[in-house]
Amino acid sequence: MATRREQFDDLVLDAAARLEEHLGAHAGEVEFAVEDVPPTDPAPWESSAVPLGRLFPAQGRMPARIVVYRRPVESRAHDARELTAIVQDVVVEQVAALLGVAPSDLDPRYGDGLG
Question: To bridge 88 with a disulfide, which of 34, 50, 70, 115 should be the other Cys (CB 3.0-4.6 Å)?
Fold first, then answer.
């Protein structure tokens, strides 16, 4: 039986796998990670709201990294279906930011709550 943390990790990996074709050449250059909570110091461009995810651009030999914050995402979901949809949207938003495209260009279901 998988723990809640492992189940959440799987949701992030599944969401990333759905976008793999869009990443194309970037696929091997992006790492996906889960952290429990975001750091207490928001990035200058972020609002005061708690972020659900964050893109860390590639630096030197370090690949780009997309982090999804488990506790803030879980606190917004009322059930497993909604959790899946929120995770999918967060991953889509971060990949879209990496590629410089609109989230709806990557996933036509973006924002519809159906994950």
Answer: 115
Cα angle, residue 109 at apex, residues 106 and 110 outer, rounded to 5°: 65
What is residue 44's predicted lDDT score, i.e. its pLDDT?
66
Cβ 95 vs Cβ 23: under 8 Å: yes
Question: Where along the chain do its domains lie?
Answer: 4-38+51-106
Task: Give the integer Cα–Cα distance in Å for 90 and 83.
Answer: 11
CA distances from 110 to 23, 44, 87 (A): 16, 26, 11
Q: Which two tokens stand for residue 110?
A: 């973006």
* pTM (2 d.p.): 0.86
Among left, alpha and beta (phi > 0; psi -120 to 50; other), residue 100 is: left
Torsion sign over Cα 27, 40, 61, 45: positive
Note whether 33 and 106 are within 8 A (CB): no
Class of domain 4-38+51-106 as given by CATH: alpha beta
User: Mean pLDDT in runs of 10 for the chain (115 residues)?
Assistant: 90 91 73 90 66 91 94 95 96 92 89 64
